[in-house]
Amino acid sequence: MHKQIFVNLPCKQLPASKAFFEALGYTFNPQFTNDQGACMVLGENLYAMLLAEDFASSFTAKPLVDAKAGTEVLVCLSCESREEVDSLVAKARAAGASVPREPQDHGFMYIHGYEDLDGHIWELAWMSGEPPQE
């Protein structure tokens, strides 16, 4: 089926967004990064394209959503541990993110997240096993 995923996210200030995610430890593929967009590597074959708003709007006839005022998408990334979830949220907060909710512990799954500089929601999840059977 599919071999890669690219999540495209409009950014008001691309250099600031790049610096924010670099502070969290993410890297960018220089082959697909310029002053209009930056290809952030999330994992093997997993990418987020941070796009300057004017460039992002060239891909759609619809208006872009202001992510600080509304939600178009929730990006959820799996983590290796609860500690990794908490560490990434702490790094995001230190780099200027808002953290609007407390962590959620469902026993088999631990979730926490942040809103980046543009208001995009990034959920981080660690799952210890299968959900309980009802």
Properties at a glance:
single chain, 134 residues, alpha/beta, 2,3-Dihydroxybiphenyl 1,2-Dioxygenase, domain 1, four-stranded mixed sheet, 3 helices, globular, Glyas_Fos-R_dOase_dom
Account of the 3D structure:
By secondary structure, this protein is an alpha/beta fold. The chain has one domain: 2,3-Dihydroxybiphenyl 1,2-Dioxygenase, domain 1 (Roll). The protein contains three helices and eight strands; from the N terminus they run E-H-E-E-E-H-E-H-E-E-E. A hairpin with a 5-residue loop joins strand 7 and strand 8. It is globular, with a radius of gyration of 15 Å. The mean pLDDT is 95.
Q: How many individual β-strands?
A: 8
Class by SSE composition: alpha/beta
Biggest sheet strand line-up: 1-4-3-2
**CATH hierarchy, class:** Alpha Beta
The CATH architecture term is: Roll
What string, H for helix and E for strand, traces the elements in order? EHEEEHEHEEE
CATH topology: 2,3-Dihydroxybiphenyl 1,2-Dioxygenase, domain 1
Tell me what portion of residues adopts beta-strand conformation: 25-35%
Look at the structure and name the CATH superfamily.
2,3-Dihydroxybiphenyl 1,2-Dioxygenase, domain 1
Low-confidence stretches: none
Largest sheet: 4 strands, mixed
Rg calculated over all Cα atoms: 15 Å
Q: Please bin the fraction of helical residues.
A: 10-25%
Q: Mean pLDDT across all residues, rounded?
A: 95
Question: For the terminal residues, how far apart are their CA atoms?
Answer: 32 Å
Give the number of domains: 1
Rough shape? globular
Organism: Pelomonas parva
Pfam families: Glyoxalase
Domain VOC: 3-127
Protein name: VOC family protein
